[in-house]
Design brief:
This protein has two domains: 175 residues, Formiminotransferase, N-terminal subdomain (Formiminotransferase-cyclodeaminase, Chain B, domain 1), CATH 3.30.990.10; 115 residues, 2-Layer Sandwich (Alpha-Beta Plaits). The termini are close together. Strands 1, 2, 3, 4, 5, 6 and 7 form a seven-stranded mixed beta sheet that branches. A four-stranded antiparallel beta sheet has the order 9-10-8-11. The protein contains nine helices and eleven strands. With 299 residues, the protein is of the alpha+beta class. α1 runs antiparallel to α2, α2 runs parallel beside α3 and α6 packs across α7.
Length: 299
């Protein structure tokens, strides 16, 4: 059996009943294993990780949309994390017995099904992108839900599938194929959002920082701290330790320090240093967050 991982991000992190229903919609699909779920009230976002063979994984994505489209209304949604849709992004990742080509094909067939069933515009991204201009998720998401109607009116931003207008409550979605990434956040000992934004700009690749690092500065108002929220897209070439040390150095430069870090969702075992809690000031880390540990349970 081929194993493909899917890590959809959904725009609700504050309503436990809705998040439970979203998780249940995935878990009820035969042949799929829900490996992890993580919700962040400040981001107002939940991340689900599940795996299985291609068809059950596609079925689980459609079941997730069925629940999300009825439960989430982006017209009344707010949160620190940028978002485009109720189901914001759906990546497929090859794990074993599957190739990136298989995941690209799965992204395209799933995108067509989502667009047809739910009348949601779909953009293909990363390895599944139809043009180089759409490879980067941040470019697709720019303008967010509120700017989506104007964006879709532009000829260069016609969706790959679905109507050329936003779904009134569910917006749009990016569906793609990619290598594993690590969602890594570093909380700072300050509530100054401008400090977090400056540190994010210093470490992210697009503004001259570290390769394979995407970063945003975010305010966690409920905790009174600022956060550097990052995606590490190639941990073999830019390690999580290197990223953490860069953030800590920049924090020192800006007259603050690191409170703690966190990994959202699952992480490949090879990406972790021997002592992650100490070397990364990692808070609340559980060995069950190691991808390989969870995948063993599928055998």
């Amino acid at each position: 059996m081929a194993v493909i991982e899917c890590v959809p991000n959904v725009s609700d992190g504050r309503r436990p009943d809705v998040i439970d229903r979203l998780a249940s919609s995935i878990g009820h699909i035969a042949g799929v294993r829900l490996l992890d779920r993580s919700s962040d009230p400040a981001h107002n976002r939940s991340v689900f990780t599940f795996a299985g063979d291609a068809q059950p994984v596609a079925d689980a994505v459609l079941a997730l949309f069925e629940t999300a489209v009825t439960a989430i209304d982006l017209r009344s949604h707010s949160g620190a994390h940028p978002r485009l849709g109720a189901v914001d992004v759906v990546p497929f990742i090859p794990v074993s017995g599957a190739t990136m080509t298989d995941c690209v094909a799965l992204a395209r067939t799933t995108a067509a099904a989502v667009a047809s069933r739910f009348q949601i515009p779909v953009f293909l991204y990363e390895e599944a992108a139809s043009t180089d201009a759409r490879r980067n998720l941040a470019d697709i998401r720019r303008g967010e839900f509120e700017g989506l109607a104007a964006k879709l009116a532009l000829p260069e931003w016609q969706p790959d599938y679905g109507p050329p207008r936003p779904h009134p409550t569910a917006g749009a979605v990016a569906i793609g194929a990619r290598a594993p990434l690590i969602a890594f956040n570093v909380n700072l000992a300050t509530d100054r959002l401008e400090t977090a934004k400056a540190i994010a700009a210093a470490v992210r690749h697009s503004s001259g920082g570290l390769p394979f690092v995407k970063a945003l500065g975010i305010a966690l108002e409920h905790r009174g701290v600022a956060q550097v929220s990052m995606n590490l897209t190639n941990y073999e070439k830019t390690s999580i330790v290197r990223v953490f040390e860069a953030v800590r150095h920049e924090a020192d430069r800006h007259g603050t320090s690191v409170l703690e870090s966190e990994i959202v969702g699952l992480v490949p075992e090879a990406a972790l240093p021997p002592d992650p809690e100490q070397s990364l000031q990692l808070a609340g880390f559980n060995p069950n967050q190691v991808l390989e540990h969870r995948l063993k349970e599928m055998r």
